């Protein structure tokens, strides 16, 4: 997609550091303090880069500057791809905000190219960042409210349940008054949990998720039972949604072209096969349900939710949680330890 000419006279001077404060100020009513701090840490790398390159006015920022920053962070930051992607996603959001307040040329955020996982790379290293997850939820809230994909993604992100657990949920497992979901191993009627009856539990959910699921059940969910006479929460006209359908739906809604109408890899959307639902897995930037689970767990830990609480909620041992799910970088961990030790 060609960028349309932009009248540079409409731009108003703004330093990168001032822009960051305005960006965070706009978000302060909607995000937790720890999430704002996470944004600040990620974008500060870009602010410091601008200072070293004498970029003191966002009006003058170019696609080449953004390319050089990406290469600099990749080569000098010693970052794993998920961490680099998370940082660049935050910078992309910042640049998009700067465009809106006439501080950057229009559509400049498209030049922040996010890294993609190569074929064969371990998908367990993938993680969806809180910024991406929130963008997807905001889009679904606005354009696909209470739909199957909205209900599924919102549940997966907030609860960080395994695919098999999401598949096992029934309508009756939504406890509206208690604002909770009941998780139960039911092997005799077609659904098993990974850890068997030890995985049985009740988890608290937000009032927002209760509303989404209630509206989904009342207005969007097919009135259907499975072959055991159960009413699956995630259903099709044929019965309980298959696990493969749950996975495919997650890949579909996490494609950037779905919720931003843009491609960070620079593909032509008219020619890209991955824009079709059935080929969503071929999008290099789509994410699995496991990546959503891992991202949700990391977000909770970054919010200072105790390890034991996250462990119990996700039905995963502390050792496995630390080894395979916790993707916080060392600076984030250090900042959280500092806070607990009152060293500020």
From TrEMBL:
Gene3D superfamilies in the record: 1.10.150.130, Intergrase catalytic core
Residues annotated as domain Core-binding (CB): 14-99
GO terms, molecular function: DNA binding
The keyword NAD is annotated on this UniProt entry: no
Keywords: DNA integration, DNA recombination, DNA-binding
GO BP field: DNA integration; DNA recombination
Domain of life according to the entry: Archaea
PANTHER family referenced in this protein's UniProt entry, alphabetically: INTEGRASE_RECOMBINASE PROTEIN MJ0367-RELATED, PHAGE INTEGRASE-RELATED
Protein name: Tyrosine-type recombinase/integrase
Organism, as annotated: Halobellus rubicundus
């Amino acid at each position: 997609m060609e960028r349309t000419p932009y009248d540079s006279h409409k731009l108003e001077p703004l330093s990168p550091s001032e822009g960051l404060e305005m960006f965070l100020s706009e978000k302060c009513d909607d995000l937790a303090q720890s999430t704002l701090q996470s944004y600040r840490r990620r974008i500060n790398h870009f602010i410091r880069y601008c200072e070293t390159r004498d970029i003191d006015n966002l009006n003058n920022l170019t696609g080449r500057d953004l390319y050089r920053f990406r290469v600099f962070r990749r080569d000098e930051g010693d970052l794993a791809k998920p961490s680099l992607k998370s940082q660049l996603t935050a910078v992309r959001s910042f640049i998009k905000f700067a465009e809106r307040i006439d501080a950057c040329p229009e559509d400049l955020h498209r030049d922040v190219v996010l890294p993609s996982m190569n074929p064969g790379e371990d998908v367990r290293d993938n993680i969806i960042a809180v910024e991406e997850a929130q963008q997807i939820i905001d889009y679904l809230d606005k354009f696909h409210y209470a739909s199957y994909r909205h209900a599924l993604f919102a549940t997966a992100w907030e609860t960080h349940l395994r695919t098999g657990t999401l598949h096992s949920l029934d309508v009756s497992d939504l406890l509206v008054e208690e604002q909770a979901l009941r998780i139960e191993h039911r092997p005799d009627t077609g659904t098993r949990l990974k850890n068997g009856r030890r995985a049985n539990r009740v988890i608290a959910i937000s009032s927002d998720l209760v509303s989404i699921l209630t509206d989904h059940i009342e207005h969007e969910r097919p009135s259907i039972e499975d072959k055991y006479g159960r009413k699956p929460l995630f259903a099709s006209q044929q019965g309980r949604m298959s696990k493969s359908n749950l996975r495919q739906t997650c890949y579909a809604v996490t494609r950037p072209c779905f919720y931003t109408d843009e491609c960070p890899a620079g593909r032509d959307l008219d020619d890209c096969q991955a824009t079709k639902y059935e080929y969503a897995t071929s999008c290099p930037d789509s994410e699995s349900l496991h990546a959503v689970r891992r991202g949700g767990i990391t977000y909770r830990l970054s919010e200072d939710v105790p390890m034991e609480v996250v462990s119990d909620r996700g039905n995963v041992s502390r050792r496995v949680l630390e080894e395979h799910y916790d993707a916080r970088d060392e600076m984030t961990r250090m900042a959280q330890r500092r806070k607990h030790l009152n060293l500020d």
